[in-house]
Design brief:
Layout (H helix, E strand, L loop, with lengths): L24 E5 L17 E5 L3 H5 L6 H11 L5 H6 L2
Antiparallel strand pairs: 1-2
C-alpha cells in the first residue's frame, strides 16, 4: 500500500502541522475501488489518501469513479488537469 499523502495538499505524516489538524489520514474508496484478492500486496485501485482536513472532499465523491472524483477535486482546488498544464509548456 502507498504511504499516506493527501491528494489535495500533498501533506504526508512526516510533515506534522503545528496544530495537528491535518495529521489524521483517511483512505477514501471511490466507486471503482476493487477489493484485492487475499495475499495481494500493493495499493488498492480506486483508493486515495486524504488528510483529515481534506477527507470530506473525497468522501463527498465516493459514489464517483476515482478519475472523475479526482478531476472534480482538482477543479475545486483550482488545479488544471495534467494534460492542460503540459500543453502550456
Amino acid at each position: 500500500m502507498l504511504p499516506p499523502r493527501c491528494h489535495a495538499c500533498h501533506l504526508d505524516p512526516d510533515q506534522s502541522p503545528s496544530d495537528g489538524a491535518r495529521s489524521d489520514f483517511v483512505l477514501v474508496y471511490f466507486a471503482d475501488a476493487v477489493n484485492p484478492p487475499p495475499g495481494w500486496v500493493g495499493h488498492p485501485a480506486g483508493a486515495v489518501w486524504f488528510c483529515g482536513e481534506h477527507a470530506p472532499l473525497g468522501e463527498e465523491r465516493e459514489h464517483l469513479a476515482s478519475h472523475s472524483a479526482l478531476r472534480e477535486i482538482d477543479a475545486v482546488l483550482g488545479r488544471l488537469p495534467r494534460r492542460l498544464r503540459e500543453a502550456d509548456r
